[in-house]
Structure formats: C-alpha cells, structure tokens
Amino acid sequence: MGNTGTVLRELRGAQKTAKGVSLYSRYVNRPAGRVFAACAHRFGMTPNQVTAASAVFTFAAIASVALVRPSSGLAVAVYAGLVIGFALDSADGQLARLTGRGGPDGEWLDHVVDCAKLILVHTAVLISFHRFSAPPGEGWLLLPLGFLFTAVLTFCAGLLREQLGRAAARPGAETGAAPVSRLRALALLPADYGVFCLVFLLLGDPTAFRVGYAALAAVHALFLVAFLTKWFGELRALRTAE
Fold first, then answer.
1. pLDDT tens sequence across 27-39
2. Measured distance CA(136)–CA(132) in Å, rounded
3. What are 145-160's pLDDT values in tens digits?
4. Which of 7, 125, 174, 223 lies at a C-alpha separation of 20 to 30 Å from 64?
5. Which residue spans traverse the membrane (predicted)?
6. Cα–Cα distance, 23 to 11 (Å, whole number)
7. Residue 242 gets which letter from DSSP?
8. pTM for the whole thing?
9. Contact indicator for 196, 151 with CB cutoff of 8 Å
C-alpha cells in the first residue's frame, strides 16, 4: 500500500480544481481530508467506508445538539464532530480518485449523506431551541426552518446546475481551466459548511448562538439569490449557444 508520506504526495496530485472553492475548503478541509484519506488507504478502507465514518461523526454531533442541554463542553464536542465529519467527507472522494475505486454508487451515497446532514442539522437546532433555550419569541422557531429551506434549495439547485450543464455541453467542447480567484475564494467563506460549523462553538451561550445562527442564515439567503441568478444565467447561455 505504500507509506503514508508517499500516499499524501500522490493525493496532492489528484485534487479537484480549486475553482469555486472557498479558502476554508482549499486550505483547511481538503488538506485534513488528505490526511484522513492517506490513513484510510493505509488501513485498506474503501471510499464508501470513509463516507460511513463521516456520517457517524456528523450525525452523532447533530443528535447531540437535539438531545443534550447546551454547554461549553457540548459546543466543543459538536464542533469537533462536525468538522471531522466534513474532513472525512472530503477524504472519501480523494481516496476514490487515488485508488480508482469510485463509482456512481459512492457518489450517490456521498450526496445522500450530504443532503441528510443539511436537513438534520437545522432540524436539530429547531429541537434545541424548543427544548432548551427558550427563545424570546415563537418566531425564532421559524429561523431553523428558513435556514433549512435555504440550505437544501442551494444544494439541490447546485447539483441540478452541474448535471444539466454536463448534459447540455456539446460533445468535445473545451471547458477550459479558468484561473482561480483568491478574492472569490475569500468571498465564498461565509457560505462554506466549515465556516457554518464554527457557529456551534457558541452553543453554550443561547443568545450568542441565536445571533450567530441568524446572521449566517441571512448571509446564506443572500448567497442563494446570487447562486440561483448565476446558475440560471449559465444554463440559459448554454441553451442559446446550441
């Protein structure tokens, strides 16, 4: 299987493009995922097993939000679980590209886990608000529902943009390698799941958590509008180019 250092070097050469990726994913999550992928390769794990490990860490953290009374200790544990799960989510794809063992089943499983975590994390926040934090008004209970709607619509619309774009592309058309914009990568930080995980470090202070969570919800709603406008324009351009 080769030593871990050799595998890490091979993984660095088998990365997805950095275009459209925030600074967090590029410089934190993907490198962490490389380490997990190298370790998984050394222990003979398959990409689907890494996906399952990602789900265990992620869903355990999410369940804790819903079932355990908020505290500073819980905040750190939840953040750690979410971040490790996110890094493993990167590792499964890296391992698949390294070993050539990826396939439609693995991609499907990865997307199912991603969709489930987006639904469940905001559902868990809603349950936590109701059970533990006694928000100042019942309207606060609508906030996680709105955030859930925004997150799932962004996720589904992005997948559709990718699939429909591939289907509409002319055979043999050159996609080109557009330069990676560091400014764009910086601008995408607030929409990155890894940055979203940071808000759970505030879980021990109900007021601070509500404010931080609400601020991120507003930012994600603005990004949704921007993404939908951009993706619609790109698909429309593909149609007129036919």
1. 999 999 999 998 9
2. 12
3. 999 999 999 999 999 9
4. 223
5. 74-91, 139-160, 185-204, 210-229
6. 19
7. -
8. 0.88
9. no
